[in-house]
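can u do me a favor
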């Protein structure tokens, strides 16, 4: 039999058609930003929706407490005849030692606890961002000086420092003073994160291009370096907020925080410890509100950190 010396011919597409097919790009495919990728990742996780719902309810309760209760939390709303009484109609959680409605005090106490937490976090974030951005961008002796100052503050427990400050200002224990006492010593960790991010982005090409176009170093830092380093700062801020709320409750529980005329979860927990055996719910309910709120902010910060980290997304 004659051998088949020539194989069956195969169809080969023209080079032009092949190039057009390979290089074709869908017009509707738009590049997503870092925040768009983070949102896409977080919205698929049930934990994000649960913690977001808790944060939303607590913030709404702090801003508009009358939407949740019409009972006066102090003064005329308290009666010694109801001291340590259990739940009744219109008072689902019972009464405190002074005869005040526990549920109403939890609702109104959220405003003070969140106010101190937000103010302390804002103060610490502003100081830490300024210190870290200048240290990372300018470098040299300024970096050494600011880094050493940050190391000093980092070794000081800010709760202990706040105790000293509030002892000095014992006659003026307002939410603003307490916020400065906490935030003024809680900025070192934020400064470290900002410095590390600024050191990373200052080597980028757009920073070099900005300097070559004649922009000053300060304007380059403010307009280009700092905005591209804010993602981890937001994560740290969210976690710090939960820690600041916990610090306020700790100081108020110890009697070194807010004055007795102010309502907060920490104060209610501290006042309820004297009647723990008789009416434990007066201590347990505010503790639950504090714990759930702090955990919600911390978990939300952890979720945001993982969503903004491409390596963490790749590992899942």
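np, heres the sequence
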């Amino acid at each position: 039999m004659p051998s088949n010396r020539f194989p069956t011919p195969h169809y080969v597409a023209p080079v032009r058609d092949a190039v057009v097919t390979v290089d074709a790009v869908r017009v509707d495919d738009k590049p997503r930003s870092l925040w768009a990728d983070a949102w896409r990742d977080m919205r698929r996780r049930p934990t994000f929706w649960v913690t977001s719902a808790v944060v939303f309810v607590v913030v709404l309760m702090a801003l508009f407490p009358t939407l949740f209760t019409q009972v006066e939390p102090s003064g005329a709303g308290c009666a010694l005849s109801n001291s340590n009484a259990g739940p009744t109609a219109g008072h689902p959680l019972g009464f405190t030692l002074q005869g005040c409605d526990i549920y109403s005090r939890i609702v109104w106490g959220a405003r003070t606890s969140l106010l101190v937490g937000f103010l302390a976090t804002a103060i610490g974030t502003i100081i830490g961002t300024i210190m870290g951005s200048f240290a990372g961008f300018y470098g040299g002796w300024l970096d050494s000086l600011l880094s050493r100052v940050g190391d000093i503050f980092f070794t000081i427990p800010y709760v202990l420092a706040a105790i000293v400050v509030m002892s000095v200002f014992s006659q003026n224990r307002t939410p603003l003073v307490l916020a400065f006492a906490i935030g003024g010593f809680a900025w070192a960790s934020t400064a470290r994160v900002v410095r590390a991010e600024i050191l990373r982005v200052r080597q980028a090409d757009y920073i070099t291009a900005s300097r070559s176009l004649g922009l000053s170093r300060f304007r380059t830092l403010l307009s280009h370096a700092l905005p591209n380093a804010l993602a981890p700062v937001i994560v740290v801020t969210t976690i710090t907020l939960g820690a600041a709320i916990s610090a306020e409750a700790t100081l108020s529980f110890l009697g070194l925080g807010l004055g007795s005329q102010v309502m907060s979860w920490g104060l209610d927990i501290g006042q309820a410890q004297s009647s723990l055996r008789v009416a434990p719910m007066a201590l347990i309910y505010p503790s639950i509100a504090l714990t759930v709120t702090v955990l919600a902010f911390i978990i939300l910060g952890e979720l945001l950190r993982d969503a903004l980290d491409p390596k963490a997304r790749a590992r899942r």
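The mean pLDDT is 82. hope that helps!!
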